[in-house]
């Protein structure tokens, strides 16, 4: 197990530098001049040229990327073009907010999807099953920004139950969490239903029922436990997606998280912030996948034996 973890950590390092190359290349060829954006339209060409030289923007692609990698090796993500403060401090101060939103959204998704998916599998082709499939279809088809607007119109403007934006208390997190959570739940619900249907058709479930085992024990101890591998997989993937997918929700609900920071930084051509944020999200995604793989070993002993080989 330890050997496997170290191999995965080594692969994360390769992913880190691969993502750094990709995001650096995309931003390098993106139209727009950060120096002109910082100084404004009233700046002279001489002032812009001087700032470009001081920021290293006149260097070639290879020279700029080499300088960037050297900084990354020493744990330096650079300095913000706009604020002049270290990028590390800027993104670390926002990251807990994004994690909080992702955790709450995943909690909402699991709370909706797993019970409904289990019920849909138990009562296949009934009203509950048809309702669950309808919810999954609507959740996966509806764009997040439209869903967020509808929730604001209903619960904030019409009913006046919840605030429209901000992150000052528990009530401020409800609409953003449901905006992301409902979209996540659609995928988890479908996987839960299909996985449970497959397990319920196995011979050991029939044997357990023939022995007179209570249906509750058959469902939760035998069926759901053996159906957890694909469910845990999709929950882990969706949680990682929520870290990056929170860009839309944070922008609409004015939540000062990493997603909103990325959007604001793209508008202001603050490339070091964008690069650092994307790198942090990519590494977080890899670590989440590693955690899910380790969780497999505790769910299924056979997987644990394979990892220990």
Concise account of the structure shown:
The chain has 14 helices and no strands.
Your description of this structure?
- This protein is mostly helical and 309 residues long.
- The protein has a domain at 96-308: MetI-like fold.
- The protein is built from 14 helices and no strands.
- α12 runs antiparallel to α13.
- The N and C termini lie close together (8 Å).
Describe this protein with a few key phrases:
309 residues; mainly alpha; 14 helices
Radius of gyration over C-alpha positions, nearest whole angstrom? 24 Å
The proportion of strand residues reads under 5%
Estimate the helix proportion, in percent: over 70%
Low-confidence stretches: none
Number of helices: 14
Global geometry: globular
CATH class of the domain at 96-308: Mainly Alpha
Question: How would you name the oligomeric state of the polypeptide chains in this document?
Answer: single chain
What's the count of strands? 0
Distance between the termini: 8 Å
**CATH architectural label of the domain at 96-308:** Orthogonal Bundle
Order of H and E elements: HHHHHHHHHHHHHH
The computed structural class is: mainly alpha
CATH topology annotation of the domain at 96-308:
MetI-like fold
CATH superfamily of the domain at 96-308: MetI-like
User: Largest sheet, described in full?
Assistant: none
Question: Any chance you could write out the topology, listing elements then pairs?
Answer:
Layout: H1 2-28, H2 34-39, H3 45-55, H4 61-73, H5 87-122, H6 127-141, H7 144-158, H8 170-200, H9 203-210, H10 215-226, H11 228-252, H12 258-267, H13 271-299, H14 301-308
Helix pairs in contact: 1-13, 5-6, 5-8, 5-11, 5-13, 6-8, 7-8, 8-11, 11-12, 11-13, 12-13, 13-14
């Amino acid at each position: 197990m330890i050997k496997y973890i170290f191999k995965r950590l080594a692969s994360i390092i390769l992913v880190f530098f691969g993502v750094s190359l990709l995001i650096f290349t995309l931003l390098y060829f993106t139209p727009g001049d950060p120096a002109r954006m910082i100084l404004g339209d009233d700046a002279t060409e001489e002032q812009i040229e001087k700032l470009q030289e001081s920021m290293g923007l006149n260097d070639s692609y290879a020279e700029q990327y080499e300088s960037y990698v050297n900084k990354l090796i020493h744990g330096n993500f650079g300095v913000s073009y706009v604020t002049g403060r270290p990028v590390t401090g800027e993104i670390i101060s926002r990251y807990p907010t994004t994690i909080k939103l992702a955790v709450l959204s995943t909690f909402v998704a699991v709370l909706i999807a797993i019970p409904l998916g289990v019920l849909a599998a138990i009562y296949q082709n009934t009203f509950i099953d048809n309702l669950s499939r309808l919810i999954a279809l609507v959740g996966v088809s509806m764009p997040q920004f439209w869903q967020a607007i509808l929730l604001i119109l209903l619960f904030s403007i019409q009913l006046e139950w919840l605030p429209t934006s901000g992150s000052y208390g528990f009530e401020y997190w409800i609409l953003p969490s449901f905006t992301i959570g409902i979209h996540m739940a659609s995928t988890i619900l479908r996987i839960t239903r299909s996985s449970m249907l497959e397990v319920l058709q196995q011979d050991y479930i029939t044997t357990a029922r023939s022995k007179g085992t209570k249906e509750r024990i058959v469902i939760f101890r035998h069926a759901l436990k053996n159906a957890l591998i694909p469910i845990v997989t999709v929950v882990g993937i969706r949680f990682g997606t929520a870290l990056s997918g929170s860009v839309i929700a944070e922008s609409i609900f004015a939540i000062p998280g990493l997603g909103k920071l990325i959007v604001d930084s793209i508008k202001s051509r603050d490339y070091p912030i964008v690069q650092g944020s994307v790198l942090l999200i990519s590494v977080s995604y890899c670590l989440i996948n590693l955690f899910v793989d380790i969780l497999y070993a505790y769910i299924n002993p056979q997987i644990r034996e394979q990892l220990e080989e």
